[in-house]
């Protein structure tokens, strides 16, 4: 074990002693909650739910996790039979539990709701999409990395062979753009990750309404690791992330984590102002030497160029002001309307 990982394990041991947890149970066999956001997944859920339970059972049988571990489905205001399916699974097996949001609030809010629900009852969470595209078997290595001292383990795609050229190009460009803008994101990582209860307790102090979890989790800190896996085709159903939603998520990620676009606008403004000043000097010189001619085309080009720059700048600045407006309201990021289980106060062992 490396020096950094040893320090992480020692620090984690201190954390558990502080809350009177049994080290033998919670360091050797941590309680895992798998967080699965669901939105209109009635077609894929009957296929993937048994796969998640099989993986949970495998992790338990190999002495990686406690039998108190659970699979938490988060219904994100589905309009189909998804919540009824979750309720049925919860009745059949106690390892399945579910919560339902009062309305659809989006993927990021659903993941957050699951993590905040789980943090009082588990030692680690793993968030993963319901569609079966992410390699469920990668959870083995994620838990192993946690047991070695990592508090956050990022699931990273090793390649994008299943993506179209357009999606691969735009996705990779998106990560590069975010990093260029100063946002700290893990390249080719989405929302498949392991997060410890210590990190979740620290993350609870982040109160942003505009969520971009893959950029916010790294801000918390703590030792981290990466697990590489191959992503598969969606097992059933259809994707709920069309191009419009992906573009919206990308813009949210940039404006939520970086103010560099405003700096770029300032720089562009300075350059345009300088060019305008030089244009004024040129126009005066031409007037002095008597070489001025009617220049309707050049005037229209200049006006259109400056008008375009101004409108783009106002749009970007307006986006930031809009986010400030939403943050100032401080509305709840999620509201849980139903549960298939009754929350309890976790009893810590001496």
Walkthrough of the structure:
By secondary structure, the protein is α/β, with parallel strands linked by helices. The chain folds into 2 domains: about 5-255 and about 330-340, Spore Coat Polysaccharide Biosynthesis Protein SpsA, Chain A, CATH 3.90.550.10; about 260-330. The protein is about 50% helix and about 15% strand. The chain is built from 12 helices and 8 strands. The chain has helices spanning about 5-20, 25, 45-60, 80-90, 105-120, 140-145, 165-180, 195-205, 215-220, 245-255, 260-290, 295-330; strands at about 30-40, 70-75, 95-100, 125, 150-155, 190-195, 225-230, 335-340. It has an 8-stranded mixed beta sheet, with helices on both faces.
Structural features:
350 residues, alpha/beta, Spore Coat Polysaccharide Biosynthesis Protein SpsA, Chain A, 2 domains, 8-stranded mixed sheet
Might you state the CATH topology name of the largest domain?
Spore Coat Polysaccharide Biosynthesis Protein SpsA, Chain A
**What's the main sheet like?**
8 strands, mixed
Structural class comes to alpha/beta
Our Rg estimate from Cα atoms comes to: 25 Å
The number of E-state strands comes to: 8
**CATH class placement of the largest domain:** Alpha Beta
Shape: elongated
């Amino acid at each position: 074990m490396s020096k950094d990982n040893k320090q992480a394990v020692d620090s984690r041991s201190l954390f558990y002693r502080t809350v009177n947890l049994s080290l033998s149970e919670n360091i050797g066999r941590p309680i895992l909650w798998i967080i699965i956001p669901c939105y209109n997944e009635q077609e894929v859920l009957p296929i993937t739910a048994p796969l998640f339970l099989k993986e949970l059972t495998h992790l338990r049988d190999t002495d990686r996790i406690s039998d108190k571990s659970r699979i938490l489905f988060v219904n994100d205001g589905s309009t189909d039979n998804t919540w009824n399916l979750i309720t049925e699974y919860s009745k059949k097996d106690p390892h399945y539990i579910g919560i339902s949001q009062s309305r659809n609030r989006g993927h990021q809010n659903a993941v957050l709701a699951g993590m905040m629900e789980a943090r009082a009852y588990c030692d680690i969470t793993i968030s993963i999409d319901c569609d079966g595209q992410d390699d469920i078997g990668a959870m083995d290595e994620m838990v192993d990395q946690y047991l070695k001292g990592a508090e956050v383990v990022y699931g990273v795609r090793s390649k994008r062979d299943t993506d179209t050229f357009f999606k691969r190009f735009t996705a990779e460009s998106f990560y590069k753009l975010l990093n260029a803008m100063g946002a700290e994101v893990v390249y080719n990582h989405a929302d498949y990750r392991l997060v410890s209860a210590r990190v979740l307790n620290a993350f609870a102090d982040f109160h942003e309404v505009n969520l971009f979890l893959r950029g916010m989790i790294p801000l918390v800190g703590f030792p981290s690791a990466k697990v590489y896996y191959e992503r598969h085709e969606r097992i059933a159903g259809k994707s709920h992330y069309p191009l419009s939603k992906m573009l919206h998520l990308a813009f949210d990620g940039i404006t939520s984590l970086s103010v560099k676009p405003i700096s770029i606008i300032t720089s562009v403004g300075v350059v345009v102002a300088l060019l305008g000043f030089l244009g004024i000097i040129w126009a005066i010189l031409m007037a002095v030497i008597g070489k001025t001619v009617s220049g309707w085309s050049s005037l229209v080009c200049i006006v259109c160029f400056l008008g375009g720059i101004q409108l783009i700048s106002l749009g970007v600045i307006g986006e930031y002001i809009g986010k400030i407006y939403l943050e100032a309201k401080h509305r709840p990021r999620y509201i849980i309307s139903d549960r298939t289980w009754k929350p309890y106060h976790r009893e810590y062992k001496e």
